[in-house]
């Protein structure tokens, strides 16, 4: 059915307006974020004028410390070490948590077997296992990656179980009526439906990874942002502590944005909203 001239003209007018409105919303959001950050820096500067640098270094002192750490290579080495541990533990948590969560959500017997362990250990913080991790796995990378894995896997599992149980019963019945086997139903109906929950779980797990890496590196690491913060404490370099905290926040923000971009770019067919 052909559109009338008036309908075509309205569509041609509406599309540019919508694009212009979207661009304006993005610009407004960016402008508000920039103003908020600048306002925070100003408040920080004002407060630092009346407080000892030992307790609150100024933005300029913190920037100078960041330059100092960057020039001698400490900052880059710390960032690379922490990101490698976070990436390894987080990826391992997804690799184990996604299929386990899907199986627990889809098969009742598997859920009944593993649920007591999931419900118990997900309330025990990773920091409680730091000593055991060092004893069992040594002070090397294995113990730190294991702690980050522990901090991520339960979040992934719980989100995947929720995603499986949220699948419409009508879709499952429709697949069965069309002759799909239980395995085919799992792969073609259940798994695609859980993708939004997978992305949400991955983002939450990423946050937990950053929280855990600092604790692990403070206890047993010679490099990394957590070790940098602990070293700064020992030498009374509060500005180094601020550098470590700010870098952690920026890295976490960047990783989360990259994950959201990935979801928007490659997972549109699953109608993921991030």
UniProtKB/TrEMBL annotation:
Q: Which residues form the ABC transmembrane type-1 domain?
A: 79-259
Tell me the membrane topology, using the record's own terms.
Answer: Multi-pass membrane protein
Instruction: Give the matching Pfam families.
Output: BPD_transp_1
* Biological-process GO terms, alphabetical: transmembrane transport
Extract the InterPro entries matched here: MetI-like (IPR000515), MetI-like_sf (IPR035906)
Q: Which PANTHER family match?
A: ABC TRANSPORTER PERMEASE PROTEIN MJ0413-RELATED (PTHR30151:SF0), ALKANE SULFONATE ABC TRANSPORTER-RELATED, MEMBRANE SUBUNIT (PTHR30151)
What is the designated name of this protein? NitT/TauT family transport system permease protein
Q: Which organism encodes this protein?
A: Chelatococcus asaccharovorans
Read off the lineage from the record.
Bacteria, Pseudomonadati, Pseudomonadota, Alphaproteobacteria, Hyphomicrobiales
